[in-house]
Amino acid sequence: MVNLERDLEKAVENLEPDDPDSDPEYILTYLQELAANPVNINRADLDELLLIPGLNFRLASAIVTYRLENAPFESAADLIRVPGLGKATVKSLHPYITAGSRQEQARDLYLNRKYWLNNLRGEMISRYRSILQKQDGYIRPDSLGGFRGGPVHYYQRFKFTSSKLSLNITQEKDPGEAVTGIGGFDYSSWHIAVQQAGQLQSLVIGDYSLSFGQGLLLWTGGSFGKSRDVVKSVSRNERGVRPYGSAAEAAGFRGVAFTYGNRLQISGFYSNRKRTASVRDSVHIRFPGASGYHRTISELSRRHNLTQKTTGGRLRYRFRNGHAGITGYTNHFSRPVDPGNLSYQQYRFSGHRLTGISADAGLLIRGSYLFTEGAFTSHGGKGLLIGLEQNLGPKTDAVVLFRRYEQDLQSIFGGAFGEQSGLTSNEYGFYSGLIHKIGSFLELRAYGDIYHFPAPRFRTSRPTSGSDYMLHADLVPHRKLFISVLARVKGRQSEYYARDDYGRDVRILGTAARQIARIQTEWTPTGFLRTRTRLERVRAETPEGVYSRGILFFQDLRLVPDRRVKLDMRITLFRTDDYQSRVYQFENDLLYVMSNTMLYGRGVRYYALLNLRTFSMLDIYAKVSTTVYSDRSEISSGNLRISGNRRSDAGIQVRLRL
Question: Among 394, 441, 443, 451, which residue's Cα sits nearest to residue 417?
């Protein structure tokens, strides 16, 4: 309306008062009528577009060309995508244009093939990985508990996406599982999804993930806990309903889900999926596991022995400075769940049915972001978290978070921030994090987290507490040199057995602690060479007060001789006194493969990873790795046992992009 008034004012001012040919009444009427009957930019031809003030032949022609080559416009604001049209021009056109009524948009957009297939891309992936040494599970007959399939871990994925559509099929065979024909994979995932189609934000048929609020009630598909990003990783960024194509078998839902609306959004979902659970007795089962392994006769006998149905919805409203939402669901198992009779299992879910409801909100106030969520589950469980992200200046950010998850909060789909990964229950805590930059060469990151478990947890019979502190410094003394220093101290109460004065075995409460000190340098002398060097020292203490130490050193080299070739190589030396002082290292791996290798004992590890882009559409990845131990003659145990001191892994992956 303001633009129209300006145009009317300019039109009148530009007229010559004494010109007999000037007709201000006609011009005013023309502009007002045009504003009352705006031109449909999805249907107008060149001549109709030229009726709009501010458009010349070149710009009108560009609009028609863009519409024909791409897709109809969803809104008038989409004109900004047209080459030659700037923000000021598009703003001046607004009073006189429209993308059409909802009925017209439905015909122009939803019946237009280009609307659905714009920016269409395809991806096909095939991946083979295997341990090269024989493990006992492949030697032992399946009648005696051995694996029924071969040692190859096979994964394949077919995915086609456009700006509005997603179609995906993922299939996987874990090592030891058998494959019977093309459709005989142990795990298959699929979905057909529509996204960002007008008011329809998402519609998924097949496999999907749900991530709402701060994850106190519903958060599947993965989340970050305490990490190097000590501020931004604390609050959850809602992902809502998303199509799911991962090979993690227990993480997603299967059925139908949608989200509709803009400022006010409504979501609904229904899931009906088969799960695998250990059998307690002829009636009861344990809570379904997450491993997804079906390798032996025993594991296969439990495959898909449970049906899990989940129904729920969410209402979310976005306002200028924040958002608020309500989420609820009901979940039903076809067989009753028995959590067990150990002390740490007494508050776990039991029975057939579970319901949950939560309310969450986020509010931005002058650089401060306040976020919260409260949840309630059947059987009386409650949970609450409140956090505040605060900008303390141009170089400083901070966050604080209070959490109180009652021991009887049975949030089986939860993924809120906490000390216990994957378990949103039985935890009180207070976390604070800070990031501060000093000039352009130094950045400091620190967090502190104190927590308490009000009920017994695994291998304890009483409430326990703990703390976790970390300091991380990133130094850039030169544009080609990056230095990272980390110190972390973590302690958690745990129990151990000792004998009292009467010779009886009693449980004593002590503290298990780990101290980590690390320094890592990264040097990039040229565009085709990068080196990384790390030295890490670990000091561990058992609840009984026994100390052990571990040390890790690696040298990493990356070569990029050509934009189509990348080679990563690393040698790692490690020595730890025991498992308590174990060390970890993140490794580059095949595409979409997460590799955080744990090492303990004494030995050396090598790996090389090659990424080769042979053509514009074809990528080839290959990795080989070997770990040689100097303190043992066999590796692992049970079906995974390897006779010898060497374990070697090899993998190859091909990605075809269309």
Answer: 451
Please give the structure tokens belonging to residue 352.
């057939």
User: What are the pLDDT digits (tens) for 605-655?
Assistant: 999 999 998 878 899 999 999 999 999 999 999 999 999 999 999 999 999
CB atoms within 10 A of CB 56: 11
Which amino acid is residue 386, in one-letter code?
I
Q: What is the mean pLDDT of the chain?
A: 89
Please enumerate in sequence order all residues whose Cβ is within 8 A of that of 7, keeping only pairs 6 or more positions apart, or say none: 31, 53, 92, 95
CA-nearest of 258, 381, 376 to 328 is: 376
Residue 569 DSSP SS3: strand
Angle 322-328-334 from CA coordinates, rounded to 5°: 150
Instruction: Provide long-range contacts, Cβ within 8 A and 24+ apart, for 176-182.
Output: 176/137, 176/138, 176/147, 176/148, 176/149, 176/150, 176/151, 176/293, 176/295, 176/296, 176/639, 177/147, 177/148, 177/149, 177/293, 177/294, 177/295, 178/148, 178/149, 178/150, 179/149, 179/154
Q: Exposed/middle/buried for 412, CB within 10 Å: 0-12, 13-18, 19+?
A: buried
Query: Can you tell me the distance from the alpha carbon of 449 to that of 491, in angstroms, rounded to the nearest whole number?
Result: 11
Q: What is the pLDDT of residue 393?
A: 87
What are 300-306's contacts with CB under 8 Å, separation 24+?
300/148, 302/276, 302/277, 302/278, 303/276, 304/274, 304/275, 304/276, 305/275, 305/276, 305/277, 305/279, 305/335, 306/274, 306/275, 306/276, 306/277, 306/333, 306/334, 306/335
Element (H, E) at 114: helix 113-117
Q: Tell me, rounded to whole angstroms, the distance of Cα 310 from its chain centroid.
A: 21
Please say whether the beta carbons of 110 and 197 come within 8 A: yes
**What SS3 state is found at 311?**
strand
> In terms of Cα–Cα distance, which of 138, 133, 177, 293 is closest to 625?
133
Q: With beta carbons less than 8 A apart as the criterion, state whether 250 and 275 touch.
A: yes
Give residue-wise pLDDT tens across range 365-388. Answer: 887 899 999 999 998 899 999 999
Look at residues 19, 64, 71 and name the one whose alpha carbon lies nearest to residue 46: 64
What is the CA angle 656-192-185, rounded to 5? 65
For residues 370 and 345, is the Cβ–Cβ distance under 8 A? Answer: no
Closest CA to 172 of 128, 203, 224, 229: 128
Q: What is this structure's pTM? A: 0.85
Q: Is the pLDDT of residue 10 over 60?
A: no
DSSP letter assigned to residue 207? E
Residue 575, pLDDT score: 97
Residue 399 CB-density burial (10 A; 0-12 exposed, 13-18 middle, 19+ buried): buried
How far apart (Å, rounded) are the C-alpha atoms in residues 100 and 325?
31
E strand or H helix at 330: strand 322-337
Contact in structure between 395 and 435 (CB atoms under 8 Å): no
* Residue 382 phi, psi dihedral angles, 5° rounding: -135, 150
Please state whether 242 falls in left (phi above 0), alpha (psi between -120 and 50) or beta: beta
DSSP one-letter code for 294: -
The string of DSSP letters for 250-276 reads TTSEEEEEEEEESSEEEEEEEEEEEE-
**Average pLDDT for 505-521:** 93
pLDDT at 361 over 50: yes
CA-CA distance, 512 to 496, in Å (whole number)? 10
Q: For residues 587 and 598, give the distance between their C-alpha atoms in angstroms, rounded to a whole number.
A: 11
